[in-house]
Amino acid sequence: MSDQGLKQQFGIGICGLGTVGGGTARLLQANQPELTRRLGKILKVVHVASRRNLEIADIAGIRFSTDVFAVATDPAVDIVVESIGGFEPALELIFLAIENGKHVVTANKALIAVHGNAIFAAARQKGVIVAYESAVAGGIPIIKALREGLAANSIQWLAGIINGTGNYILTEMGERKRTFDEVLKEAQRLGYAEADPAFDVEGTDAAHKLAILAANAFGTALEFDKVYTEGISAITIADINYADELGYRIKHLGIARISDKGIEMRVHPTLIPKKTLIANVNGVMNAIVVKGDSSGSTLYCGAGAGAAATASSVVADIIDIVRSTDGNSNVPSLAFDSLRSDVSVLDIKQIQSEYYLRIPAYDKVGAMAQISQVLMDYSINIEAVIQKEPHGAEQQSGIVPVVLLTDFVREDQMDIAIGVIEQLEQVADKVMRIRVEHFDGERS
Questions:
Q1: Which residues are catalytic?
Q2: 97 phi and psi, to 5 degrees?
Q3: Domain boundaries, the chain
Q4: Contact 14, 24 (CB under 8 A)
Q5: Which of 187, 250, 315, 357 lies 20 to 30 Å (CA to CA) from residue 372?
């Protein structure tokens, strides 16, 4: 498609007219005069394929079909917007579009996280672009920030609230003291969570996005299968209250960090100090903090989903593609033109962290001493302790929680210590463990 620099109109084909596809069609139509002014070229939707209600976008004068593959082979289409979701037929559609010399824009984070390496290889071979800004954090231009604004930096770490459903649930639990199950039902009623919410609350959605972010930040191939993933369904109001008393909030974070030991990629509930900016990002909002060696820490915050926000990122990718064709140069699929292979992803057992532990102990003399002795035996220092007099249900059960914050320790070492603690006669049940992060750049 080397002659595209001479083109004055670019044909857009949209596959799927749901939330993302419909929002993209509306935005392209509503802002066409402004987009034409900025680009000096016309972006025109020429073909849509959908089985959904077509009233969400004005398709008068636009070719319509129920066959998405017809879009990928239409000579009038220069850029295919894949907004079907899922793996099939989306994956087949993208490969067909690439084979036919079409550029592709997708919001499909699962597809990119799992099949992105193969997709990008095919795109490079055909000299086309596959852009996916909208796949991570909706309207927040985080991929462009990593690829362009922070291009001079060696990225040291990033951490983000990258699933709005989980953030909404934890926010409501903290502010209104409601249980996880109560808030989840409300989130489903409001449309924030699906009928089967596991994809969001157990961390899979965030893990897809983190794999994409880490690859862009560190210049590696996509390795979704190596992301450690833990959900929020075990978090209780008690944990949120104890964290608050200790000066922290609980957020469901995706964290990626690179060091001379390797790369950490993990999604899990995390205690972070209340004073940090990201701790105060609530509701369905998303936010990502990125630490560069020169830029320092920068925060990107905004709507992580929704028709308008996601469409904003889709259209921004379309604009990038059109601009790149003027100079016959491709926007790289990842933030680096060549990928590094000199670093590997660390197993979760190899990482170091501080920890919050909630230990259900019997209200008997010596419980705290036994717990402290085990931690001492495994060289785990205690930074803070909460142990209150039992009352109400705790008094009747004879069980009172012992809450601890520890210093830095390797995960495998903590695993062993927790296993020993759970076998103590003074301990009634499983230990609740939540990792703690400060994001101050200091590591022990």
A1: 209
A2: -60, -45
A3: 2-139+307-326, 145-303, 352-436
A4: yes
A5: 250
What's the DSSP call for residue 431? P
Q: What is the DSSP letter of 8?
A: S
Strands (E), 129-241: 130-131, 155-161, 228-229
Q: How far apart are CA 134 and CA 20, in angstroms?
A: 9
Q: Is the pTM of this model over 0.90?
A: yes
C-alpha 415/C-alpha 15 separation (Å) is 47
Count the helices and strands in the chain (H runs, E runs): 15, 17
CA angle 203, 204, 209 (to 5 degrees): 100
Q: 220-258 b/e with 16+ CB inside 10 Å = b?
A: bebbbebbbbbbbbebeeebbebbeebebbbbbbbbbbb
> What's the CA gap between 122 and 129, in Å, rounded?
10
Q: DSSP letter string over 328-363?
A: T-PPPSSSSSS---S--BPPGGG-EEEEEEEEEEES
**What's residue 327's pLDDT?**
60
User: Which residue from 50, 61, 68, 57 is spatially nearest to 23, judged by alpha carbons?
Assistant: 57
CA-based nearest residue to 179, from 187, 355, 229: 187
Which residues have a Cβ under 8 Å from the Cβ of 410 and sit 6 or more positions away?
349, 350, 351, 352
Class (C level, CATH) for 145-303 = alpha beta
pLDDT digits (tens, 9 = 90+) for 137-195: 988 999 999 999 999 999 999 999 999 999 999 999 999 999 999 999 999 998 888 88
- Residue 265, by phi and psi: left (phi above 0), alpha (psi -120 to 50) or beta? beta
Residue 106 backbone class (left: φ over 0; alpha: ψ -120 to 50; beta: rest): beta
Q: Is 354 exposed, middle or buried (0-12, 13-18, 19+ CB in 10 A)?
A: middle
The CATH T-level fold of domain 2-139+307-326 is Rossmann fold (3.40.50)
